[in-house]
């Protein structure tokens, strides 16, 4: 239960962080069978699908090391579903997959644009 609370807090911090960079969050926790995207946002012409990672101890692994190839596939699959169900052409739309890493009690934020 504490893990879910920490995850929700990290996602709220990430949403605020994006807003401070003029990126509008469109949807939070978009889920389908087989995948989830933490935040879906718009950055000018880009649809941005954001994975939020929170760790209390950054020494465990870097933020990018925590994302597996399987997880990347699930996020892409879920993003494709979102675009399709909202009549957005994935072939002509600008799409980006970002990662926001939040670590430690100091809530340091690492933002990796176009991470995968």
UniProtKB/TrEMBL annotation:
Taxonomy, superkingdom: Bacteria
Name of a matching Pfam family: UPF0102
Matches recorded under InterPro entries: Restrct_endonuc-II-like, tRNA_endonuc-like_dom_sf, UPF0102_YraN-like
Listed HAMAP family: UPF0102
Family statement drawn from the similarity comment of this UniProt entry: Belongs to the UPF0102 family.
Listed NCBIfam families: PRK12497.1-3 (NF009150), YraN family protein (TIGR00252)
Protein name per UniProt: UPF0102 protein CEW91_10555
